[in-house]
Amino acid sequence: MTDTLIKVDLNQAATDNEQVHNRWHPDIPMACWVNPGDDFILETYDWTGGAIKNDDDASDVRDVDLSTVHYLSGPVGVKGAQPGDLLIVELLDIGAKQDMLWGFNGFFSKNNGGGFLTDHFPSAQKSIWDFEGMFTKSRHIPGVRFAGLIHPGLIGCLPDHKMLADWNKREQALIDTNPTRVPPLANPPFASTAHMGKMRGEARDLAAATGARTVPPREHGGNCDIKDLSRGSKIFFPVYVDGAGLSVGDLHFSQGDGEITFCGAIEMAGWVHMKVELIKGGMAKYGIKNPIFKPSPIVPTYNNYLIFEGISVDDDGKQHYLDVNLAYKQACLNAINYLTKFGYSPAQGYSLLGSAPVQGHISGVVDIPNACATLWLPTDIFEFDINPSASGPTKFLDGSIDLPIAYDK
Amino acid sequence: MTDTLIKVDLNQAATDNEQVHNRWHPDIPMACWVNPGDDFILETYDWTGGAIKNDDDASDVRDVDLSTVHYLSGPVGVKGAQPGDLLIVELLDIGAKQDMLWGFNGFFSKNNGGGFLTDHFPSAQKSIWDFEGMFTKSRHIPGVRFAGLIHPGLIGCLPDHKMLADWNKREQALIDTNPTRVPPLANPPFASTAHMGKMRGEARDLAAATGARTVPPREHGGNCDIKDLSRGSKIFFPVYVDGAGLSVGDLHFSQGDGEITFCGAIEMAGWVHMKVELIKGGMAKYGIKNPIFKPSPIVPTYNNYLIFEGISVDDDGKQHYLDVNLAYKQACLNAINYLTKFGYSPAQGYSLLGSAPVQGHISGVVDIPNACATLWLPTDIFEFDINPSASGPTKFLDGSIDLPIAYDK
Amino acid sequence: MTDTLIKVDLNQAATDNEQVHNRWHPDIPMACWVNPGDDFILETYDWTGGAIKNDDDASDVRDVDLSTVHYLSGPVGVKGAQPGDLLIVELLDIGAKQDMLWGFNGFFSKNNGGGFLTDHFPSAQKSIWDFEGMFTKSRHIPGVRFAGLIHPGLIGCLPDHKMLADWNKREQALIDTNPTRVPPLANPPFASTAHMGKMRGEARDLAAATGARTVPPREHGGNCDIKDLSRGSKIFFPVYVDGAGLSVGDLHFSQGDGEITFCGAIEMAGWVHMKVELIKGGMAKYGIKNPIFKPSPIVPTYNNYLIFEGISVDDDGKQHYLDVNLAYKQACLNAINYLTKFGYSPAQGYSLLGSAPVQGHISGVVDIPNACATLWLPTDIFEFDINPSASGPTKFLDGSIDLPIAYDK
Amino acid sequence: MTDTLIKVDLNQAATDNEQVHNRWHPDIPMACWVNPGDDFILETYDWTGGAIKNDDDASDVRDVDLSTVHYLSGPVGVKGAQPGDLLIVELLDIGAKQDMLWGFNGFFSKNNGGGFLTDHFPSAQKSIWDFEGMFTKSRHIPGVRFAGLIHPGLIGCLPDHKMLADWNKREQALIDTNPTRVPPLANPPFASTAHMGKMRGEARDLAAATGARTVPPREHGGNCDIKDLSRGSKIFFPVYVDGAGLSVGDLHFSQGDGEITFCGAIEMAGWVHMKVELIKGGMAKYGIKNPIFKPSPIVPTYNNYLIFEGISVDDDGKQHYLDVNLAYKQACLNAINYLTKFGYSPAQGYSLLGSAPVQGHISGVVDIPNACATLWLPTDIFEFDINPSASGPTKFLDGSIDLPIAYDK
């Protein structure tokens, strides 16, 4: 039986677990050590550490304290790992905690986090997803059911001091361009809610003062939210500190490309069974700056898609220059609008795009001035036919069910 | 035998072919008419109308007159089509012209068009790709060979006058923000090289003065450069004018997501066998603004990928806010750098990313301040193993072959 | 432009074409020669040489002279090929003749050929399939349309004298166990309808007297009718004679595993673009007796299946021992019966299983006394939903259309 | 948390578990009851109930008492199920027991069970496979590692008395044709080792005397050993008795089509999470005799294959008539012989074909007198390149490792 090196108790506060942390800092002590070639299991909280409940009230999403996320399990020290190595991590399997066979998706209030389409969906909403073995469905979004492409939203190794300083410097410089923006452009270190693993006292306070927030993906990987970095995939991580310091969390039962709803994918607590190995000096040998990975040989075969296009012209008809974000926004809005013709509310459509295995492709990025992005909606996840036809569309849903909403107080 | 409604002679100038045009304008007369339910064949020039040659000299790429593109076959009138309808176009098959069984990929000079990585590749270069049935390979990029996912880079219906006016207005507004930029932010109408199909005299001059350039994708589809809109796919186009006015061109033997090299994919002359049908009033029924489509049931099964990540921090270490373009640029640069470890030149790597069936995914777009984009490189297209390993990498190429380059005069 | 080394004129009798033959014999002269590394095109007749017409009368199927088939294009001599080599044949592309954009499927009369389910379908019937680019549909079987997985039913190299003698001897020994059986157990050489390519006079008569019939697959490959040996695949053929002598014919637009209808798949005239190379001494190096091959990277993605099981108990309830043929027969009959619930006639169901890309798997072959075979019916090829449900099934067809039938005279 | 309705303790004899049985008989009492719509978990023994050990000695395979298999968990009663209904079983998930993260594959002695290639491999041998999350590898077969396509080898509902009588009658009739054959043609009821669940005393003895053996697949499904009936698939079972009586066992971590090694696939103890529903009167509505099923949307994407052909001519050169079993045997032997060129022993090759996700297709079954079967070997499961090339093959293995063998005493 494989050793579970980090356990989490969902009835215990994440901040009480010394093998958990919510900031990136090179001084966080290793939570445990392994050898290259070892395989082991790490349990994880959901990214909020249990802040979102399985109920029909979105006020928890509205009120969440985003300075507390993400609760990561680790860091795991790998013996012999040195700066410049590549740490190979194979995700042998991933699953949900048996006492939490559900997950959540939601949109933050525009005043507390926002999201990709926050201008269209400014209030906190959520949907709850039940897991049925490999499958999931939501009581808040009837008519869809699909297999999960389970993956960690967040995984990576500790930065060294130099890299950490760079992160803080460049992100603060961005914040300084518009420091009062809501939502903010970036999040600076924030000591009071920092959970630094085993660190205590002055050392903890010192590290907490500069510990990088976990929200953005960075050179080390981190919160990449790549849906295809799923169980069965093999990742090659840059190593910056002795022992590497691998941490993981923010597990997703399923996610659409972009994780556009921000809160988030289908978020869950769970466990990761992984195996580690080293390529000594691999960063230079392979010219690696960011992680690279090989996707899993086991993936859902939802190959029937309806594909929506978007271009970089905004809702007001203003032309932007090769802006893929805007093009993808338009593709998402086009898909959401389409889904309403079958009876979904816009919020249900938005939630679905964040939760289901939709693909977001950068389709054209040179044809000035318009970028073209495509959103691939798998049609086999629906229990009815959502393809266009001469006789359609049919409203399969009567509108009696919608996502809970919690307006700002 | 299916009727070929538009023929092109590669030995004749595209501008001499009255069933070809290179601007969008509602007044361009239909080149031919069909009925809903008909299938027919249209031949097309390559997008430049033959400006790029099958040789080892990139000066043709450097000197190309971009005001002349794209040479489109059409418009095809569909009887009974009215504004507000959806025109269903099924791409029954697509192929190369038998007298041009090769294609080209290239990078424009930064001073004449540029491209996605023009700051890294400022000079004109090109690669020539030979077709072997379903497969292609290039004498300029050894060690790769792959099946084509053949598609039209450009396809769509004529805009109406209102839409055309909107396009010209919003694009000019963008140009006005930096009218001397090189490369330009957008291209305004340009009458002298406009080819308006059958139009002649004053009518032609009037339309040419406002005819929209064909480079950007727009609401009607147009130059979307979506590699998955391939033979076998079915597209639902908005109709704006009586008869729809469907035009097609810019055929690609293969392309990577983003068509990052701009000049372009693997560009070819060829033919499209298509079938049209109508959904009356379909735009309102389905809430369609941009085209939607169903991809082909026949696609290459290159399922082994090496995936590169990129984040929105630029080469100078400056932090940008959720900028997917930049993140994809970084992912591309990471992939190019990786390929150099196996012996490819950076230019070969760049060309490969524009030509091979690589995927570009919008992986994370909410984790402030960093967007995360991923570039999926199919490893089965290489004749040797490009996966990372403890013993690698091996330089399979000796550097004796590279892409022709033509420096600015 | 690639050279077409063998041309066929569908208005000319196949027996008048000297680059065509319908028997296997080492003395048939090469129709043309190529070098290793060459690519070239061979045109082919349909397997019957035009005996079956595009009409609604199955008497041509009933009356066909099976001693005349299959009309093969070749043999192609490959310079330097010697016995013991492996001949690599890459199928670069395959297509239909432009003047015959349709194909046929049929069942022979039990008294003239029979078929897999001849006891259930003893009379000649046929269906005609029209090609629409990559797709096909039949006026005789409404409600289905699918992309072709185009392949040669028959391809292989000439046997040497020793191998030919072995074939004739072992097949005659089988015939001798029941020489009057209808349909026969095997077909011996039959000189009068033998077409030996360029051979004339006494030499022709001598070879015709022992030339092996082309119906069965044998060690050299031959009439394997493997649907996955499709365009884009790469085959490694044993070489038995100097020059190899590669012949090809019996092109199929599509076929189900087993080609159960015998007459046949969706049979067509067409062309094959192929490339040849050699592995010297490859038979011994790789221990090759029968051909091996790598399937194409381009295949239809019809991944939604309804799978039918069959076991080796016959219609009378008699138990047979691990008989996969019988198990597959039962699986086929189960599928046909199921399809009748949606309105198809049994004959339409049978024809569909022979024509569409159904899979036939040898699922269990050790669980005495029952073999288990499975038939995989792709559900995406139907224009309506044929999955079982609590509310179904629905008769989508009214029975007004069926396959033409021609009873024995 | 989902209820586990049947638990098995691997340290307890299977015969001591009243919710387990090893014969089919309508009188076996339901082990537990569920409602339509319920999902629940059943744990299972490996098919032998623990007879095969994780060691390097094949004497346990040689000496196994085959009259004791298969140990099935159930029968599960489904409230409201009646004869003529279809029982829908969705396999929500399947996994190995945490205290047995390994499986076994083996060949029986020809004198005790035999197997598909028992004439070539007459002695008992075995290989042990370790599970690493979704993946498996064997210390007895170096150089391969693959993801499991986990499935139950055996699943189905209780027969009624009439069906049971038919089974026994027809199988005895077969046995009677050669009652002393080794291995036997079929296995008749055998009371002494029958485990009839909760049944005791006279009732048990009576039922045991006629309880059908579990080895063959039959009309109800049963031991179909269909590798694609994997987790995520949905099966429609005929119901013969009130309550249906669903039983499951013989879990496989992975298997090749045919389960040619008989002992067996990669056999494991584990658990099945399933959900049941009913289609009232479904057997008649859909014309169902044997189960039908829809495969899982989650499958391994091992799409690169090397395909071996076999025809129905035996090792002595004797011609058989359209015998798919023989053709598949030849294809298997061809593949095994090929693998020896890379350093595998024949026994390793044989074991691999039984264990890995190889496909066995009935490719041609009408081309008298030869059937053609194909064996599809996925090449991505190997850690080295096993494709043919002009420079190969390379012996990657030195022959120092082989499967344990136990000769008959």
From TrEMBL, chains A, B, C, D:
One of its GO terms (molecular function) is hydrolase activity, acting on carbon-nitrogen (but not peptide) bonds, in linear amides. SUPFAM superfamilies: Acetamidase/Formamidase-like (SSF141130). Gene3D superfamilies: Acetamidase/Formamidase-like domains. This is Formamidase. Transmembrane segments: none annotated.
